[in-house]
Design brief:
By secondary structure, the chain is α/β, with parallel strands linked by helices. The protein has helices spanning about 30-40, 50-55, 90-100, 110-120; strands spanning about 1-10, 45-50, 65-70, 85, 105-110, 125-130, 150-160, 165-174. Strand 2, helix 2 (about 50-55) and strand 3 form a beta-alpha-beta unit.
């Protein structure tokens, strides 16, 4: 199963605008369309509870959303079998479970804690990163303070607007 980490960032590596976790407030229209396509094409998506709480996603019959949280019981009333799940399983447990279920790709979309945990366990195969031509100075980082050593190989880059928004895809060198 291919595991893809998808993020949008500024040139100074911020994924939130001064701490506001709702990315669509500052990302370009091109990135919003790109993310919608990635979302629509991804039958299995994993995100953290902070990302989910900031901008809750609606369950759909063609999409399985897994929200990682330390307190899954807190969300029990929001679960929809086969569509929206809340779990405290580790990234490795999730990968093993959904690989066994026959999913071909897992898309990881939200939060520095989630990104860091998957990268730390060396579970990510590709990083799809939209780079917006902005500098915020203050905001959330792509990963949390953790010792990581991840080498990447550029697969593709596409300039998607006149301002210079770039959609990049990298393979994780293992």
């Amino acid at each position: 199963m291919k595991k893809v980490l998808v993020f949008v960032t500024t040139l100074d590596g911020k994924i939130t605008h001064w701490g506001d976790a709702i990315v669509r407030k500052w990302s370009s229209e091109e990135d919003k369309r790109y993310f919608k396509k990635v979302w629509d094409d991804s039958p299995l998506t994993v995100m953290g509870s902070t990302t989910f709480n900031a901008d809750p996603m609606k369950p759909t019959p063609t999409h399985h959303l897994v929200v990682m949280t330390r307190t899954p019981a807190k969300y029990k009333d929001q679960e929809v079998i086969g569509q929206l799940e809340f779990t405290d399983h580790s990234p490795a447990q999730l990968v093993a479970h959904y690989k066994k279920e026959g999913f071909k790709q897992m898309t990881v979309v939200g939060g520095p804690h989630i990104a860091t945990s998957f990268l730390k366990e060396k579970l990510i195969d590709e990083l799809w990163l939209t780079i917006e031509p902005k500098i915020f100075g203050t905001g959330g980082n792509f990963v949390v303070n953790e010792n990581l050593d991840v080498d990447l190989q550029l697969l593709s880059v596409e300039k998607v607007n006149e301002r210079g928004t770039l959609i990049t895809k990298y393979a994780v060198i293992k």
